Amino acid sequence: MGKKTTVTEENLVIVESPAKAKTIEKFLGKDFLVKSSYGHIRDLSKSDFGVDINNNYQPDYIISSDKKEVVKELKLLAKNAKMVWLASDEDREGEAIAWHLFETLELKEENTRRIVFHEITKDAIQKAIKNPRKIDINLVNAQQARRVLDRLVGFELSPVLWRKVKPSLSAGRVQSVAVRLIVDREREVFAFKPTSSYRVTAIFEVTDDKGRVKELKAELNKRFDTYEQTKAFVEKCSDAEFLVSQVEKKPVKKSPAAPFTTSTLQQEASRKLGFSVAQTMSIAQKLYEAGKITYMRTDSVNLSDLALNMASAQISEMMGPEYVNIRKYKTKAKGAQEAHEAIRPTYLDKDTVAGSAQEKRLYELIWKRTIASQMSDAQLEKTVIHIEAGNTGEKFLATGEIIKFDGFLKVYIESTDNEGEQEENESVLLPPIHEGEVLEMLNVEARQRWSQKPARYTEASLVRKLEELGIGRPSTYAPTISTIQNRGYVEKEDRDGTERHYKHLWLEKGKPVIESEKKEITGAERSKLFPTDIGMVVNDFLVKYFESIVSFDFTAKVEKEFDDVALGNVEWSKSIDEFYKPFHDTVEETLEQSEKSTGERILGVDPASGQQVSVRIGRFGPLAQIGVSSDEEGAEKPRFASLRKGQHLETITLEEALDLFKLPRTLGEFENKVVVIGIGRFGPYIRHDSKFVSLKKGVDDPFEIDLETAIERIKTKREEDLKKIIKEFTEEPDLQILNGRWGPFIKYQKKNFKIPKDKNAEELSLEECKALIEADTKASPKKKTAAKKAATVKKTTATKKATTTKKKTTAKKTK
DNA sequence: CAGTGAGCGAGCTTCCGCTTGACTT
């Protein structure tokens, strides 16, 4: 749409991102028009795999529907340009984009150049223009192999799941491994048996140089396995002498972390700011588009020389030259392609930025991390004081750290995922203590401690694991995490902890030991990824029949193969053929031979009826069942009940399953209508006269509640509802003025309408209400169509994959 | 929103990686 479209330009440069195009255009001057392809412009067609299996896996590429406009414009511009510069990223995907552009725009070799740069700086770009090359067809072929392999795996495997597990499911090289990680971890947690030991700490009294009395906390250098041993030791402490036998001092240095990549940014934003992976990416995108940070999808920890100079100047100015230590970091990530710089502020002299609160916070995080990465090591002195506990043969250790030179710690401290054990990492300043001193004991405390269960994944820690395994790319981490949640394989959830008792011993100077049992809350989870039943069943199915595909090193193996293709040592279609032939055989075999997979577990026998009790995945999710289906005439049908939230096929017990059938429960009658207790999506409820009343949380037990209490709840609900009604009209019972969460509103035929703020709700007449309804429906005709669209989406798709489906429906319409 | 738990079968679902917008209570 730009005005320049019709003008003939000397040079057309095509990059992938429009924001990048804008910046580069400034560097190149008026002879260059810089445009963007918006990523890939073509993809495999969806019919017949988009790949001709019988003809060397010949790909069938079509221009993506949302790229037709872009392609049309680029084609015209390319036709009129004297030279076309393909400046997509220097990695496998970027090379392929260049090649697709070459093919699709019908470019000619003599006036096409391929150029690459890893940083968006004037120097880098001008150097690139001076050093053009040809499209590297081997690298392109490696990308084609990658693309075709992913298509074949995804489009062969998914239909197997439709037949053997449930329709609409999906499997793929990346998502299936992500799910597997989460399922495996859940089972580790389930199998985990905590063991306990006893941790002993003591507080001593110390007088410092100025005569001030201070407390010194120390921990025993061992933990006891049994309560008896612990008690015996604590008792001995009451009259023991505590002698400082050694004061150990050693220098320690700490180094800063590398600048941010996509994955480390996602992790730190999650730990420090509590952002989800998708949130981080969308905020970063905004910062990028505003020119405030460099590109946010990168696996590189490299900073440009320009950035390093800026960092050096900035640190020197803000904190002094002794804080500068310019470093080059090397990536550790498997399969990193390093087409971009690390994520950094565009201008390092800006330590903050205008924008939303979230943008500010993320920017400041990036600024700090970038600056810290170029700062000096922190110099610490670690002190360990050894305190002999009388003649018990044990000793207490007090550790402390003093910072001699703070270095990068002045700006940034990296967080870790460790939960619970933070107190041990606390750095404390120790009072001056000398060897040979005898310390006064104030108290000794011993408490039972339990070993920690394996940590469930957060979105961010899953990304880190995937990156470690070389699975997925910076541009796909966030979408992959959405996919496995949208498919219903995984849920992000909070879980309340459970109460646990622990033993406690307390000894105060000159007093007897106090023994007690205390309570703590343990195992609470916040925003953790849990597998669903369907996720587990699908995973087990894939592991059983397609172990090689969902194995953790599958991607690494095929990447090696792609590397050979990129080097020109192997023909890509041959490499695909070697994989596909046996894979396809397994698919056929599995379709023929495997049973349908429902995750069925037989729990036992129902004592009341003598029938079998089992659980499995049903049409609408996990269910429990009493009895078995039978073809025989007049055979009794089994009874069914859905599993509740938090119950799982794998862990539910016979008793819990039988409990499910106790509801709904009829209590009796009230006002000649039955009162029924049940549990629905929103918890336990009372149903009466086709109205629903929630049970009181934490007070009412759906299995125990009696008719009297239920009636009480119904009555209070009625009173509350009355308060909601502001005005009613006898001539129009469908119309009410109600008090809602956001103030008064009009309810008409089950739809809600706004009341303007300048109107008094109580004084509205029926005519005025109808006028408001009329005005509201007219004012937003879009609302209606949007709602309709949403409804059709809901019909065609079971879960909330609204975004992808919507795109498709609109795409079809515009055709 | 508070249930349902199939084969009278028509046609659809699905992958991974590049990119950005246009959606909504």
How would you describe this protein?
- By secondary structure, the protein is of the alpha+beta class.
- Helix content is 37%, strand content 24%.
- It contains 23 helices and 30 strands.
- The strands form 8 sheets. Strands 9-10-13-12-11-14 form a 6-stranded antiparallel barrel. It has a 4-stranded parallel sheet with strand order 2-1-7-8. It has a 4-stranded antiparallel sheet with strand order 19-20-21-22, with helices on one face.
- A hairpin with a 5-residue loop joins strand 16 and strand 17 (514-522).
- Helix 3 packs across helix 5 and helix 8 packs across helix 11 (357-373).
- The longest helix is centred in the first third of the chain and has 28 residues, at 137-164.
- It is globular, with a radius of gyration of 34 Å.
- The two termini are 21 Å apart.
- Residues 1-6, 420-425 and 780-815 have low confidence and may be disordered.
- It binds one DNA strand of 25 nucleotides through helix 3, helix 5, strand 24, helix 22 and helix 23.
- The record marks 40, 146-147, 150, 162, 297, 487 as: Interaction with DNA.
